[in-house]
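[Automated response] Your request has been received and processed.

Submitted sequence:
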Amino acid sequence: MKKNRFIWLVALVMSLFLLTACGQAADQDEQNTLLKLATTTSTEDSGLLDVLLPEFTADTGFEVDVIAVGTGQAIVLGENGDVDVILVHARAAEDAFVAGGHGVDRKDVMYNDFLIIGPANDPAGIKGETNVITALQKIAQTESVFVSRGDNSGTHIMEQNLWNEVGIEPQGEWYREVGQGMGETFRMADEMVAYTLIDRATYLFNRDNYTLEPAAEGDERLFNPYGVIAVNPDKYDHVNYDGAVAFIEWLVYDKAQKMIEVYGVDELGQALFVPNAE
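Generated structure:
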C-alpha cells in the first residue's frame, strides 16, 4: 500500500512538473511571437497600420501589439524597455535615442509633409502661403485661434521648432494646447474653427469628416520623415529583438515599401506617404 502511494505521489509530482513546463513553454512561445510597437498617432489615424500589420503577421507569424502615442512618449517607452520597436517621426530625437544606447538599427521608412489647415474664411489671411514662418507670423499677429497638440509628439516638436524660428513664444487665449493625438486634435480644431499643424496623411484620411481646408503648405521646412528603430537588446534582454528585426527588415523591403507607395491612391486620389527605405 505504501509503495503504491509513493508511486502515485511521484506520478502526481511529475504531472505537475510537466504541466508547469508546458505552460512556461507556451508563455515563452507567445512572448516570442508578440511584438510590442510604439508608434505615432499619425500612422494609426491615417489607417496605414491597418493595411500593413495583417500582412506582416501573415508573412512572419509575429502578432503586433500597437501603442499609438506621440513620438516623445513612444521614445520614452523605448528608453524604459516597455516596447520592442518604435516607428516615429522626429529625427533629432531618434538620433539621440540611438546615441544614448537605447536603440539600434535605425532605418528610414517613408516620408510625407506637414501643412497648416484652417477655416474657409481664413481670418489670418494665409490661404496659399508657401512660407510657413510668414503664415505663423500672421496667425499670431491676428490672434487667430491655433490648436496645438501640446503632447511632445513629432508634430508638436515640429511646431515648436517653427515658432522658435518665428521668434515668439505663442501664448494667450488664441493659442490652445490640447494634449491630444493628431486625429483628436484635428477634430477639436474643426470644432473651434481654428488653425492647426497636421501631417498630410492624417489630413487626407480624415478631411471628408471636417470643414478645415489647407491654408499654408509646400515649405521645405515641413518635410516629415519617419524612422523605425529596434530597442537595444543589450540594455533590455527581455525585449523581442528577433521580432523587432523581422519587423524592420519587412518594413524596409519591397513588399511593404510598395504597399506604402500606393496607400491612399485608389480611395483618396494620392499617396499618403512616400517610401524611402533606399
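Summary generated for your ticket: The two ends are 75 Å apart (CA to CA). Residues 23 and 29 are 10 Å apart (CA to CA).
If you did not submit this request, please reply to this message.
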